[in-house]
Amino acid sequence: MAATAAIPAGPAVGEQNPPVDGLVLAVAVALAFDVTNGFHDAANSIAALVATRAATPGQAVVLASVFHVLGPLLAGTAVADTIGGLVDVDASAMVAVVAAGITGALMWNLVTWWLGLPSSSSHALVGGLVGAALVDGGVGAVVWGGMDGIHPVGVLGVLLALAVSPVLGFAAGLVGSAAGRRALRRARRRAERPVKQGEWVTAATLAFSHGANDAQKTMGLITAMLIAAGRLDSFTVPLWVKLTAGLSLTFGTALGGWRIARTLGRGIYRIRPLDGLVSQGASSAVILSAAAVGAPVSTTHVVASSVVGVGANRGRRHVRWAVVQEMLAAWVVTMPAGATVAALALPFWRWLS
């Protein structure tokens, strides 16, 4: 594939490999990023379920845990292939560049999590990788790419997917809300229980789609580092990488996702059961479709924009636009912030590798 062609062939085992402890630390940082990704994105799959009282927080976490792990195991590796081909640097520099890029995204995730802002982990990761690659090898170290049919390639292809997906999320939420309200306009009381039961299905689907898309980003980067370090001969994601990525997302949900869940479940628009059902279903459809074509998207962007679409269907006054503006401001600065921290972290990773 075009995405994997950008990954340099690793040296033969024993020839100029980075120290094992440096590689292990880089993998650990990648999994830590997945935990912070869980703070942000994994909470999205349970926010509506909890906010509408369709499930308790404990029930929601258990549900999300199972399907976050199933996502990367069952959904293939198309997104991992795309993310694994964003930078084109020498094998000797790959571990340092990727680790620095992940460090930039990790630090930005921690800052925005502490502030309770649903910032995009995907934007932070792309910004971090681009920043580290530019410092290491200049413009030529970044695979800019574009589109190969419906498949995104390189940074430009990923940015296009990140830009289009929130628009699709908003449209799906808006249309789905209108259709749902029309279908249930005469049976709202009787329908509340089955709607809440349906929320469990859409929440599970959303958790699966999140694992299928977001966990693959870390899977692709870990695999790229293993290839560059001579630990793998081809771009084949090991089973242990899939499992640890999914489990890290789940751990992040249980540990710290509630700040973001409160913002999405109450801050943007006070979600009702039908709204939760529609927003989760709309988001799942967009994210799973993206995963199928290898397009990395931001779960935060898609879910938040679908919630805005649902609220907008009831009228502008039902959406707390001040919160939306805060989110947009965070999204604008995410990539430069991730790139800056990654550039600062690169010397440390060079020394370690």
Key traits:
single chain; 353 residues; mainly alpha; two-stranded antiparallel ribbon; 14 helices; 2 strands; 76% helix; disordered N terminus
> Biggest β-sheet, characterized?
2 strands, antiparallel
Helix content range? over 70%
Strand line-up of the largest beta sheet? 1-2
User: Which structural class best describes the helix and strand composition?
Assistant: mainly alpha
Compute the average pLDDT: 82
Low-confidence stretches: 1-15
Give me the Rg, rounded. Answer: 20 Å
Tell me the number of helical segments per DSSP (H or I, 4 or more residues long). 14
What are the secondary-structure elements, in order, as H or E? HHHHHHHEEHHHHHHH
SS strand fraction: under 5%
Could you say which overall geometry the principal axes of the C-alpha atoms support? Answer: elongated
Number of strands: 2
Alpha carbon gap, first and last residue: 28 Å
